[in-house]
Amino acid sequence: MFGCMTARPFVRLDAGKDLEMAVAELLATTEYPEIARWIQFPTSAALFLIVPNDPESGAIYVYDRHDGVWYWVDFEDQKYSGYNLTDLDVLLEKCRFLQLVENPRLLRDKEWFVTPGHAPLRQQAGANC
After folding, report:
1. How far apart are the C-alpha atoms of 109 and 127, rounded to whole Å?
2. Which of 10, 61, 63, 91 is least surrounded by Cβ atoms within 10 Å, i.e. has the fewest?
C-alpha cells in the first residue's frame, strides 16, 4: 500500500477563496461524495471523500489556500478502486502525510515516496519511484 505518490491539480479556484466555498466547488466537481474526514491548517485543507455506501472508494484532496488549487493525491499501488478509512489512518499516523498537507506547495510538480514508518521522501527530478 502506498509508494510513489503524485498530486495533480484537480480544481483551480480564485486564490483566497473562502474554504467553505472551495469545499462546495470540489464537492460539485466530484458529484457530491461524502466527506469522511476534513483536516485543515492555516495554509491548507485535506478532505477524504468517499462514494456513499462504498467504503473502499476513498480519494484524498489537498487544498492550497494561498493558490486556490485542489490537488488530487494518487498512489501507484494496487488500490485502484480507492481507499478506506483504515488506509487513511495509516497514511496520517504512520506515513507523516500531514507534513505535506501543512505545506501544500511541496505537492506542486513533485513526486513523493510514501511508506508506513517513514517520512515522505521527495523523488529526484526524472527519477522513477
Report:
1. 13
2. 10
